[in-house]
Amino acid sequence: MSINNQTSKPTSSSKIKAILWGLLPLILLLAIITTIAKVGTGIENEPAAPIEVLNVEKITLNDDGIQVKVLNSGPEEVTIAQVVVDGAFWNASFSPSDTLKRFERGMIHIPYPWVQGDPHEVKLITSNGLIFVGEVAVAAATPEANGKLFWQYALIGFYVGVIPVGLGLLWYPFLRRFSVRGMHAILALTVGLLFFLVIDTFGEGFEMAAEAPGVFQGSGLVWFGALLSCLFLIAVDQSNERKLSSETYAGKRVANKIATGIGLHNFGEGLAIGSAFAVGEAALGTFLIIGFTLHNITEGVGIAAPLLKDRPTWKTFVKLALIAGGPAIIGTWAGGFIFNDTLAALFFGIGAGAILQVIYVISKMILKESEKKGLSPVSWLNFSGLTAGILIMYVTALMVKF
């Protein structure tokens, strides 16, 4: 006697019922929200003060006076009634209008005779009497976007990113003379370098988040960007594990990952330099160039470390230098021409997540190799390398902290 077990297939009517049950909560939720929006909560208390938020995004100084770029990030429409510069009321023209809807940007043109080297303060008074302030610490003409400035910014990014990373990669022949324990110490030094970079990247991201409009939740963007980019890269890495059939290929992959993570960090350095020049702080921009150049030469050591068992060609080193240093050029362009605090916070978060994933990969490499060779993964030599990496980055970072 045989019994045939047959799995019954869902009929079209049962599929429709399942879809309806899935949509029912959403329909009811939409109905509730619509009812609340139309009927209200029944509480008619007026707010004690108008809710207006006006963010001063950028102040530009030129021969025509002062131009102020603003964003209405509040929940209500904002009308700018008066403009005060250095304590005096001034006429101003507005584009597109003196009234800005929510999330609308506008430009305020003030024919004010600003003075080179002096501080200036711009106050914007809304029709409801709220005051929003923008400041210029040291007045200087804002560089105008043109082809010459475009290439000058590119050259600055090249000096800051590609050249120092390339110089650091020149230590590769010297590093290849190390033993297995020495190679592990160099990898540990790389982890130290990256550990400092990830802390620094998070710090820069939170600074940008503090300057961004609160409605965009800049701090959250830093955390979300870091988490998602780290998990995404880990998922990509795991999906490609079967392709890592040789140590040579694995070493190149890790070197590319390190270069990519450092490149995202260097993008942030370019943002800082470009924005310094954009607001007329040329002295600060030059200081940052020198500091970042000294700081970034150590990054080449970290990129070269996974390649110590390989024999890469000079093309490999050129490619790695461009991956790690090239984003500094893009960052300088972005900072000088289209800087945005909110996007900067997100980019720093993504960069921090990428660096965290690289730390994870290198640490796993040290553990796996140490187990294979019967070595201690947390030896005094490795600990010394990790500490040295952090100290090297800390000392060179003193050149750009002020």
From TrEMBL:
InterPro entries, sorted: ZIP
TM annotation in the entry: 18-37, 150-172, 184-203, 215-236, 317-339, 345-367, 379-400
KW Iron-sulfur (keyword) present: no
Keywords of the record: Membrane, Transmembrane, Transmembrane helix
Pfam families, A to Z: Zip
Top-level taxon in the UniProt lineage: Bacteria
Compartment(s): Membrane
Keyword Membrane part of the UniProt annotation: yes
Membrane disposition: Multi-pass membrane protein
Name of the protein described by the UniProt record: ZIP family metal transporter
UniProt organism field: Paenibacillus plantarum
